[in-house]
Design brief:
It contains 1 helix and 10 strands. It has one helix spanning 44-47, and strands at residues 6-16, 19-29, 63-64, 78-81, 93-95, 100-103, 109-112, 119-128, 139-140, 147-154.
Length: 155
């Protein structure tokens, strides 16, 4: 299995207190994973050393408990560059069996926000469900949402 260093930037947009809020989780990940078989949850700690804990509380899917979220005043805001340009290129959209994946062309980057460098956008994948009460891989306060968009970045 080839390990590729990605920044896995999960965005869950929810409507809270009259405003749209974007919550993010930054993790290191690779391409080969699944919820079963040889790349299932029992093997994730081999591929994701940061997730080596005895009760698997640091592994995906993640429930974001907003009462436990801590805001850091030391991190500057994330900086997104290149997202306001229209790219006259064809972007490849595929169904990989778990989600729809859109490969990103162009020079879209993410930096600051506590990151140690600038990362280039690689692709976006979407998860959705058959009902509004499920579809997102991750949850907020135990609640699933109809859609989740995950963006992946490379160093």
């Amino acid at each position: 299995m080839t390990l590729r260093n990605y920044i896995f930037f999960v965005s869950l947009c929810v409507y809270m207190e009259q405003q749209s809020v974007v919550l993010a989780t930054v993790l290191v990940t690779n391409d080969a994973w699944s919820y079963s078989g040889e790349n299932g949850p029992d093997t994730w700690h081999h591929h994701y050393p940061l997730c080596q804990d005895t009760n698997a509380s640091l592994q995906s899917p993640i429930d974001i408990d907003t009462d436990q979220v801590k805001y850091s005043t030391h991190c500057e805001p994330f900086r997104f560059d290149g997202y306001n340009r229209i790219w006259n290129n064809i972007m490849l959209m595929t169904n990989n069996g778990r989600s729809v994946r859109i490969n990103i062309v162009g020079n879209m980057t993410l930096s600051r926000g506590g990151l140690d460098g600038t990362y280039r956008a690689s692709h976006i994948h979407l998860h959705w469900g058959s009902e509004n009460s499920r579809g997102s891989e991750h949850t907020i306060n135990g609640k699933a949402y109809p859609l989740e968009a995950s963006r992946r970045f490379t160093a």
